[in-house]
Amino acid sequence: MSAVTVSDEQATSTKAKVIQPAWVRALHWTNAFAMVLMIMSGWQIYNASPLFGFTFSSSITLGGWLGGALLWHFAAMWLLMVNGLIYLVMGLVTGRFRKKLLPITPEGVISDTKAALTGKLSHADLTKYNQVQKLLYAGVIIVGILIVLSGLAIWKPVQFQYLTALFGGYDAARYVHFFCMAAIVAFMVVHVVLALLVPKSLRAMIIGR
Ligand code: HEM
């Protein structure tokens, strides 16, 4: 009986140590890689016909010129879309989104933001996201869906004409696509800084424990 109890305990403690399951880690890092390729090649594409009064320095763009950047963008697009779809399906089917990202309440977000700004936010239990993390992760997942859909709308405006119309036409879809990029870049800056400030969370996203 004791042997059973010990092995059960061992199994539970080994299980409890896994903070980020392998599928989340693999999909997360593939997504980060694909996002960087999409953003850098996207900036080069933007430079060929800027929406605003500025362009991106060629030192931070990918592709060298419009044609090259489009090839990078359309190649990485498949990686981002397939990887993102698997993450969405897994997140829904395994109940991860419900368990880890919900509920999000305004009171919770306000109190956790205050706690974070005054250095009182606890990082003791990495298996649970605080309300600010939940909001940021749920938000970036929604923006991730929007950037892919607006991208499809400007890539194939004839084939996906209803989608393009849903965004208010080709030009409006271009703006949506740009602002989603800006939101993702802003998220990434905050996200990477926070990950570096709490290195054990980064460790968990790399080795799982
Ligand atoms: C090099 C860049 C990145 C680093 C170092 C990084 C790091 C991390 C870490 C350490 C976590 C665990 C969270 C925690 O325990 O607090 C995490 C989770 C997460 N990251 Fe990133 N990340 C990067 C890029 C990205 C990008 C580009 C996106 C999306 C645009 C993203 C979206 C997410 C999401 C949605 C989660 C929650 C995943 C889940 O629990 O299902 N990350 N990231």
TrEMBL record:
InterPro entries noted in UniProt: Cyt_b561_bac/Ni-Hgenase, Di-haem_cyt_TM, Hydrogenase_cytochrome, Ni-dep_Hydgase_cyt-B
Pfam families: Ni_hydr_CYTB
Subcellular location: Cell membrane
Domain Cytochrome b561 bacterial/Ni-hydrogenase: from-to ranges: 20-206
Gene Ontology BP terms: respiratory electron transport chain
Membrane topology recorded in Swiss-Prot or TrEMBL: Multi-pass membrane protein
SUPFAM superfamilies for the chain: Transmembrane di-heme cytochromes
GO molecular function: electron transfer activity; heme binding; iron ion binding
Family, as annotated: Belongs to the HupC/HyaC/HydC family.
Name by which UniProt lists this protein: Thioredoxin reductase
